[in-house]
Amino acid sequence: MSELVPGVLPFRSAVVPAAGLGTRFLPTTKAVPKELLPVIDTPGIELVAAEAAEAGAQQLLIVSSPGKDAVAAYFAESSELEKELAARGKEELVAKVRRAHELIAVRTVTQDEPRGLGHAVGCARDAVGPDEQAFAVLLPDDLVLPTGVLAKMAQVRQRHGGSVLCAFDVAREEVSAYGVFEVEDTGDEDVKRVRGMVEKPPPDRAPSTLAAAGRYLLDRAVFDAIDRIEPGAGGELQLTDAIALLIDEGHPVHVVVHRGGRHDLGNPAGYVRAYVDFALADPDLGPDLRAWLTDRLKV
Ligand code: G1P
């Protein structure tokens, strides 16, 4: 795959939709936004912010809803806490506390009503600079591992233009939880051209088992497409339908097929797996946890 043209930033803005009610994590989400639930000690949204920054993003546009101010507050500087920790000589903790606000500039835009992912992305329109031809979207429920897929997606946009998404091959019985792609091959096994996309199809009607995995590099033409779609699956304005409309109108859309790992932080079952996986990989926690789990599983 060709390298990125030096000096050309693939995108500056990364949109992170974070306006949902987090109903799968009630009652905790009465008071704590889902995006701030920790994976060990770090909220999922910080992991996603770090991924965006690593890929070159300069601003994180968090699409939030009224009552979720804690998400933006998490990225603000906590100078009192930093001073207190520094006074106690806790430099490692100071570094942890500083990490989120040093990563990337954060701006919040508000989605007043829960009208779907397409609508949420549309809310970021005025915050994406008028000169930015493309921007990234990262769904904070999805951890795509190892990181780096956005860089590959940027290379594909440089080569083919248009919009580029990330796909995972999932089991056919799972497709109805995802946006699913109809694809054709390119010369590269890990890059497919998308001929169509459908949101949450029943397994027997899904065009493939390649599912959208929460990473998007979208041409700004998508904003105009979002304005022209009707409510779709679940009665919501779906990002998938805006992308499908762009494809119908001849806009190039490709996927990078990610062969690595993935976690879904959006439901308790996926969250527990992510937590255990991260803990097992942690040099301090891993060995004891592995021993305990091994023992615990001997029933
Ligand atoms: C959203 C998108 C879907 C995508 C999925 C990835 O669905 O609408 O196309 O495959 O994220 O996690 P949701 O999980 O919000 O229902």
Q: What secondary-structure arrangement, pairings included, does this model have?
A:
Layout: E1 13-17, E2 38-39, E3 42-43, H1 44-54, E4 59-64, H2 69-75, H3 79-87, H4 91-103, E5 105-110, H5 117-122, E6 134-138, E7 142-145, H6 149-160, E8 163-169, E9 179-185, E10 191-199, E11 210-219, H7 221-228, H8 239-248, E12 253-257, E13 261-264, H9 268-281, H10 286-296
Parallel strand pairs: 1-4, 1-6, 4-5, 8-12
Antiparallel strand pairs: 2-3, 6-11, 7-13, 8-11, 9-10, 10-12
Low-confidence stretches: none
Largest sheet: 9 strands, mixed
Measured between the Cα atoms of the first and last residue, the distance is 49 Å
Q: Which descriptor suits the 3D outline? A: globular
Mean pLDDT: 95
Annotation field: number of helices? 10
What does this structure look like?
The chain is α/β, with parallel strands linked by helices and 299 residues long. The protein is 34% helix and 24% strand. It is built from 10 helices and 13 strands. Strands 5-4-1-6-11-8-12-10-9 form a 9-stranded mixed β-sheet. Strands 2-3 form a two-stranded antiparallel ribbon. The mean pLDDT is 95. The structure holds 1-O-phosphono-alpha-D-glucopyranose.
Summed up:
This protein has 299 residues and is α/β, with parallel strands linked by helices. It is built from 10 helices and 13 strands. The chain has a 9-stranded mixed β-sheet.
